[in-house]
Amino acid sequence: MIATALAILLGTATVVQLLYWIIIFSRLAFYQEKKEEGSSTTEQAPVSVIICARNEAENLKKNLPHIINQNYRSFEIIVVNDDSTDETEKIILDFKKKCQILELVNVGKKMSAGKKAALKKGIEAARFDILILTDADCRPASTNWLYHMQKSFRPGKDIVLGYGPYEKAKSLLNTIIRFETLNTAIHYLSFSFVGLSYMGVGRNLAYRKSLYQRVGGFDRHAHIASGDDDLFINEAADGDNTTVSLQPDAWVYSIPKNTWRGYYNQKSRHLTTGSKYKLLHVLLLAGIPASLITHYVCGLLLLTYPDWVSFTILNYLVRIVVVSILYTVILKRFHEHILIPWIPFLDVLLVIYYLLFSPILLIGSKQRKWK
Question: Sign of torsion, CA 286 288 291 294?
């Protein structure tokens, strides 16, 4: 009886996993962006780039030039100094002396956790309707970042989801961070393709100021420290108004954490908002880790029953072959070829990841500070 129950659970979990990968995640694997028809400056609508910075003096010195030197006709850069105690304001003012398109917005003493108040100030100061958001510790992959993000604003599209990978380094932690980041992107980008956009990443995100104003900005979740990106998109996105920009020139790179504790704290902060998503999104997203954990746990337990070994191995092979094929296509698309041989190992590590963070994924956590 126990073995039969385990077999039923294993088979069901495997089928659910295959459905996610074949019906939803394959959309990203085989997605083809429309060919550009030129890059005339007449097509370039003015944009406002918004960066919130709290104690980011060194990162601003390093990364602001990558924003300032964008190959784009008309844009402004608004850097919001969020009650910094280092030389953040001085660095911004130094850049402003040489760059007329840069504006400084100061936020006084922080009255709440998170960066929503700072971002709100930046959006209010923006002169243009198209807002492109990134962070002080990020750098665009190319001087054509703004062009590729802006051109995705076709008629009826008010939100553009971008991709924000992490810099590569030789360490197990770095490998795990990059794989987990890509896995997250697989989820939110693929769901967007089926009309179920539920989040974006603030490192590389764009939307219209008019949309922000229509939905009331961050008012409905202002009491939650996190969620300036994902909770806003979860509220503002519908099946039609969201698109993606996957051109490598439109990616924005960040430096990842280099300690396990730092990574855990970062992910804990990011995941606090998951339980606040729309119910349909919560249920669909919960099915991904639940089915993966069930697939591996039931498979391991069923291996202790000799009569079920062949069934267990068959389930594993069918799923891992399908998943590996699609992962390979996606990893190549996102220039992570080096991870391809590690797919089976990293797939197992995802189980550990889900188990480690499941309490936060399910019920959220106490509010955490942005900086």
Answer: negative
pTM over cut 0.85: yes
| 251 and 354 belong to one structural domain | no
- Taking the C-alpha atoms of residue 225 and residue 269, their distance in angstroms, rounded to an integer, is 9
Is residue 370 assigned to a domain?
no
Q: Domain span at residue 298?
A: 2-29+279-363
Instruction: Using alpha carbons, select from 124, 151, 139, 230 the residue that is nearest to residue 185.
Output: 230
The residues, any chain, with a CB within 8 Å of residue 40's CB and separated by 6 or more, are: none
Same domain, 203 and 335: no
Q: Find tokens 């003096």 and name the residue.
A: 57
Start-to-end CA distance of the chain, whole Å, equals 53
Verify that 115 and 242 share a domain, yes or no: yes
pLDDT tens-digit map of 272-331: 787 789 999 999 999 999 999 999 999 999 999 999 999 999 999 999 999 999 999 999
Say if residue 248 is in the same domain as residue 145.
yes
Calpha distance 68→280 (Å, rounded): 40
Q: How far apart are CA 308 and CA 310, in angstroms?
A: 6
Q: Which residues pair with 275 in a beta bridge?
A: none
Clarify whether residues 357 and 254 are in a common domain: no
- Give per-residue burial for 218-236: e unless 16+ CB within 10 Å, then b: beebbebbbbbbbbbbbbb
Alpha-carbon dihedral 153, 248, 48, 177, rounded to 10 degrees? 120
| Both tokens assigned to 182 | 């890509």
